[in-house]
Amino acid sequence: MSRIAILVPGKIHDRVPARLQEHFELVPAGRDANGRLAIDAETAKRIRGVAVSGTVNAADIDGLPAVEVISSFGVGYDGVDVKHAASKNVVVTNTPDVLNDEVADTALALLLNTAREFPRAENWLRDGNWKPGVNYPLSRFSLKGRHVGMFGLGRIGQEIAARLEPFKVKISYHTRSRNPDVAYDYYPSLKELAAAVDTLIAIVPKTPQTHKVVDADILSALGSDGIFINVGRGWSVDEDALIAALKNGVIGAAGLDVFYDEPNVPAGLLDLPNAVLLPHLASGSVPTRNAMADLVVDNLISWFQQGKPLTPVPETPVKA
Fold this sequence. Notes:
- The structure is a single chain.
- By secondary structure, the chain is of the alpha/beta class.
- The chain folds into two domains: 5-96 and 287-306, Rossmann fold (3-Layer(aba) Sandwich), CATH 3.40.50.720; 100-277, NAD(P)-binding Rossmann-like Domain (Rossmann fold, 3-Layer(aba) Sandwich), CATH 3.40.50.
- It is 33% helix and 16% strand.
- The chain has a seven-stranded parallel β-sheet with strand order 8-7-6-9-10-11-12, with helices on both faces. Strands 2-1-3-4-5 form a five-stranded parallel β-sheet.
- α4 links the parallel β4 (69-72) and β5.
- The chain is elongated and about 70 Å long.
- The chain starts with a strand and ends in a 14-residue tail after the last helix.
């Protein structure tokens, strides 16, 4: 496989190119001022695979006439035009499952930090406020007795729910259709779920149907004691509505690991004491990111050695 050319457009985890060059010809490339891949036509004709953490659009795919497979870093792959890839019989893969536990752990930690104000309490201590007779104020919320609504119950959503069960909370969910394999209460609409629960955890992908679906109406239904957690995509939240809801007491608190226009976090969120904010680090541990990088490379190796990918996305024309 040493003569098979693999394109790496832009930045990606260091482990990916380090392993790729052991098996393939590595072709790193940036983009020109017009956003096109900065490779010459002859090189483009030799590219048979792509390893990417970011965008591969229709024009990129059309400009790589020999490309067979696009291996995307991350469980989300909305940066890759999968429909166009499928129309060209180009396989697209992602890195599911290897990050499920890490993201689920982060979701639970974010919920606890949001409900119990642990980050604020630590900062209060570090600022020298803990003195004899002076204690940090009691947190307004507790996880005890809460009713948690899962907006999304895929692989990661189910891991989050499994971690919540020992906390003795009630769990319900909304997805496009009922999952017959789980015993949690199902709500056919997001608004019905939000109205029934006091804690809403969003773990949905970026699709046209999820764009700003968590809006003022949903937040109002969640209520003044409500806690909103997002470890899915910032795309799914109307951030202006969320800021207003937090500021005006429409909901009680929010914990966010993702934002609409990363890495730009709205000043309105930064100024709120009832928002816990993380820099999109749910899968951000060395072991998990290494496993994701390995799966990017292993998908390419499997494709070119055995003619099948390990983790193709549902839209891809070839199955595992």
